[in-house]
Amino acid sequence: MTELHPDRAEHILREVFGYERFRGQQGEIVRHVSAGGDALVLMPTGGGKSLCYQIPALERDGVGVVVSPLIALMQDQVEALRQNGVRAAYLNSTLSTEAGREVESRLASGDLDLLYVAPERLLLPRMLERLANARIALFAIDEAHCVSQWGHDFRPEYIRLSVLHERFPAVPRIALTATADEDTRQEIVERLGLEGARVFVSGFDRPNIRYRIAEAGGDARRRLLDFIREEHPGEAGIVYCLSRKRVEAVAEWLCEHGLNALPYHAGLSAELRQTHQARFLREEGLIMVATIAFGMGIDKPDVRFVAHLNLPRSVEAYYQETGRAGRDGLPADAWMSYGLQDVITLRQMQAASEADEARKRLERHKLDAMLALCETTACRRGVLLRYFGDPFEAPCGNCDNCLSPPETWDATTAAQKALSCVHRTGQRFGVGHVVDVLLGREGERVRALGHDRLSTYGIGGELDEAGWRGLFRQLIAHGLLAVDLEGHGGLRLTEASRPVLRGEAHLHLRTQSRPPARRARARSE
Ligand code: ADP
Ligand code: ZN
Hints:
This is DNA helicase RecQ. The chain has helices at about 10-15, 25-35, 50-60, 70-85, 95-110, 120, 125-130, 155-160, 160-165, 180-190, 220-230, 245-255, 270-280, 315-320, 340-350, 355-375, 380-385, 400-405, 410-425, 430-440, 445-450, 465-475, 495-500; strands at about 40, 65, 90, 115, 135-140, 175, 200, 210-215, 235-240, 260-265, 285-290, 305-310, 330-340, 410, 480-485, 490-495, 510. It is α/β, with parallel strands linked by helices and about 525 residues long.
């Protein structure tokens, strides 16, 4: 094994790559892997993952073998390395047989520092044979989240990469990904046999983004319009909506109110999508109203705000979508408005999905985490980053909760009334009806069902309609009420509601209808 000089990595960093210093945890990761340790590196795109295996590959004897599913990027990476004087090559299906043979013979003669290989190629018995005869510095498994069967990028070949660990137990492995949620991380560790690997999570904070999440009391569209007019006039932004219909309607409505907005969703022709996307990138101050179909691979540095008119289905989605704001590092806003109906719709979609139990449980868990982020009274950035395992010292001073700490109230009694009213009405009715009963309204339906004779009829004078709806949203968000599967939005009690009903648990909730903190136009930094 190579003798390790403490400053050798930094020497390579400067001499080969031309950088002054390591960024974030790079130095520590390089030291760990160069010394022969396994690592799992979670860093956002652009964070600087490549150096984490490239430098150890140069420091250690033998060739660093990089597994990557992104064939299109291999060539660029290898080209860039060659320009820095690194002996690099790649093996994938785009290479001619002859060119492939040449690379293989360079591998055999120890003439390579780094070899990029597509996973299916690496797993060929012949290839594994060749590697067994070569001296290998390390294995780097890029885009490691591809082992996750539940992710969008699942690659069956990735699961078979456990063979590396079995056939080459002495070779250090470093797995890298930008997907950092706990479930994916665990799957990577299990499937790739990385139980002993050190985990490095870093770089997920986007300090220039101000997070704001407000519950949609009243007209969310109107609030969005006010937000754009007051804080981002003439600036570029993205507005995410759940459905194509809503996208069309919101884009049209914003245009009617004098803003420059375009729709984008998968229902538009490819040509129109292309045109709108090109305009968004090229023109200044355009607002793209879009479904989540928009944004992949969009690199526009001066997006000043990302707004959500619906609840994203997971914290990962929220982070990724809001992350499209402020790539230039200047102040940007992540603004979201969500309401009772969002929570109900997502819960129902989930309950009604055809997925198996394990997957449903995972999705429920993801939505719960998203709802917890919405309802928290703590620093949003803290909750967001800790979800990814990025240790972060809250408060951040740049989220709504930090800027104007939310008030809370003791909602125990009100929650007890709400829950017992759900119970008394037979756990079949939706929020609207239960609120009618609580408020003692004399609708025909209430009377026909005899609900005006219930003990909970008219006991809810302390809150108005909006107040009760908000409370129900929070109860559903906190898992104290479940929404039925049939699609009528009928509410049921859950295990978690019992302690509250019995008076054994107290419930403190954020006070409703707090206007979100504004970013002062005159920036005082
Ligand atoms: P990732 O693979 O995490 O998306 P890359 O490894 O491609 O990120 O790095 C992103 C960019 O940051 C590249 O342009 C790279 O040259 C640059 N970079 C990485 N590390 C450093 C560093 N220590 N100093 C300066 N620039 C760096
Ligand atoms: Zn904060």
